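Below is a filled-in request sheet from our internal design queue. Each sheet records the structural input a requester submitted and the sequence that came back. We keep these sheets so that new team members can see what a complete request looks like end to end.

REQUESTER: design group, bay 2
PRIORITY: normal
MODE: inverse folding
CHAIN LENGTH: 163
BACKBONE (tokenized):
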């Protein structure tokens, strides 16, 4: 059974689909794409079925990432099939841990920027939705910076699971 990671933000149209696309590319580059399943969702269902925000799509394409996506809402029942749930900010972290059916499920929830050793104390990826393109570029920078550390952690977990 593949290792499973789900990125979660508010509406699943900006930050989490961006993180999903970047991390999927990192997995492919590392040769782990067949061993790890990547997904994304939102804490709310306002945008279910919608594509990613056009600004997210533009930033991803401008940086060479794929961007096919349909928004959906995270469900507590998913915890049983997920190995890691990656929250994009503290609010998502609290909400997801509150949804977790067990303490073990709650321990699967981590902040994305906790995997970036240069992030400092502010581990939130700010929501770019109400701003301009600069916010989406900043979001991508943060996602890319954290993806290397997350990749190392996932690689270790996949190796441990296989042993």
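RETURNED SEQUENCE:
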């Amino acid at each position: 059974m593949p290792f499973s990671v789900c990125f979660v933000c508010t509406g699943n149209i900006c930050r989490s689909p961006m993180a999903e696309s970047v991390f999927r590319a990192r997995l492919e580059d590392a040769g782990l794409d067949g061993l790890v399943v990547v997904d994304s969702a939102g804490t709310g269902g306002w945008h279910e079925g919608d594509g990613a925000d056009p600004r997210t799509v533009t930033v991803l394409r401008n940086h060479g990432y794929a961007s096919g996506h349909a928004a959906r809402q995270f469900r507590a029942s998913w915890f049983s099939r997920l190995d890691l749930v990656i929250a994009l900010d503290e609010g998502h972290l609290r909400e997801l841990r509150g949804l977790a059916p067990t303490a073990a499920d709650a321990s699967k929830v981590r902040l994305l920027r906790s995997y970036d050793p240069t992030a400092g104390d502010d581990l939130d990826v700010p929501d770019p939705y109400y701003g301009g393109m600069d916010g989406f570029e900043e979001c991508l920078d943060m996602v890319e910076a954290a993806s290397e550390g997350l990749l190392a952690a996932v690689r270790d977990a996949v190796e441990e699971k296989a042993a």
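SHEET NOTES:
- Residues 3-162 form a domain with the Rossmann fold fold (CATH 3.40.50.2300).
- The mean pLDDT is 96.
FILED BY: M.R.
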